[in-house]
Amino acid sequence: MPVKVVMLALSPTMKEGKLVKWLVKEGDLVEPGDVLAEIETDKAIMELESVDQGTVGKLLVNEGSDGIAVNSIIALLLKKGESKESLDLGCVDFVKERNSETDIPSVAISNKNIEPEKNSNALETSRVLSSPLARRIAKDDGVDIRTIFPGSGPRGRVIARDLEAHKKNIVTQELNASACVEEGSPKLIAHTPMRRVIASSLSDSKKTIPHFYLKITCNVGRLIDLRQEMQSSAHTSAIAGETSTGKVSINDFFVKALAQGFRDVQDANVVWHDNEFMRIDTCVNIGIAVSIDGGLITPVIRDADNKSLRAISIEASHLISKARNRELKVSEYQGASSIVSNLGMYGIEEFYAIISPGQSTILSVGAVRDVPLIENGSIICGKVVTIVLSVDHRALDGVVAAKLLSAVKFAIEHPVSLLS
Hints:
This protein has 2 domains: 3-169, CATH 2.40.50.100; 210-419, Chloramphenicol Acetyltransferase, CATH 3.30.559.10. Helix content is 30%, strand content 23%. The chain has helices at 84-98, 132-141, 160-178, 193-208, 221-239, 250-264, 309-324, 398-413, and strands at 3-6, 16-22, 29-30, 35-40, 45-49, 54-59, 68-69, 73-78, 211-219, 270-273, 277-280, 286-288, 290-292, 295-297, 300-301, 338-342, 361-365, 369-375, 378-392. The strands form 5 sheets. Strands 9, 12, 15, 16, 17, 18 and 19 form a 7-stranded mixed sheet that branches. A 4-stranded antiparallel sheet has the order 1-8-6-3, covered by helices on one side. Strand 4 (35-40) and strand 5 form a beta hairpin. Mean pLDDT is 82; it is low at 92-126 and 236-244.
């Protein structure tokens, strides 16, 4: 029998995916590890690899198909020695299996001698291909299935997902019609997979994690002076013909400072786990909150406490670029000890971020602002940044969290310590 290729869970939170592009065609020989397709998950665009050897016999899902559930069958491979007849038998088995349908596209049978839907009116009088479940939903809802053709299944087959999309479209049209029709009236857009996951995980976080917040203000005058020196040094190196290391951002300083804070206050690098135990992490991995189209993602700088500021800057720039292109691998956005979220570039002075599940803290960084400061008995114009540490009170008490935030403040106000 043909080997079934299924939609794999390519991220820990993935429940369904979108088949962006097939990278093979029917008749291609594939080996284990060969890339079959590009899949858009709730986090990124990932590569789906083959786990078996064989010849691509049938691609069951069209490019662009969305909402494909994990473990759904998306293609069939012919094993060595199998013929097209084996493929057709596999297709029959596939159709029978999916007629219980969890909303997976049914496959069209090409062998004229096999008629698995002979009595099920697979072809309506208008020659519209549709699955049994789609026809039943259409009948129950009073929908003329011909108005939905072509569907998202093979050869335009109308499947249950098309009926659900049709219903959502009708509801959206009705709601928009009921709204004010004047210019500027609101419109409704469907949730993206990423937005649904963000909504679910952060709602659970606020419901289940007892947050408390610590706020402190850092004098960043020395940091800004040091950063300017480093930029000048990088520019001079470029002029001299050496490879420039690029610009170090203020955010890079906070990533390094938080990492050193965890190294110095090891009791803070813990996570509450299932009411049974707490996980103490020995590595310091700092995530960076990155805004992307449709949501946000947190690429991770691993072992950040052991990396130089320059190395953190280069790696952060690379990961942020991959994040915005939806190219991050799971290993590049999972496993953060904590996260740095920076809205300073938008002029936000302070904010209180929600802890992501799997962490016990998140550091919010505000804008650099000019304020009067007293130095050596004189009033000067200083530069400060307000930072807020959101803390899971189940895992950290106030004193431990305060030590962590104080360590971050010390590092930021003595930035030379971050160069080691």
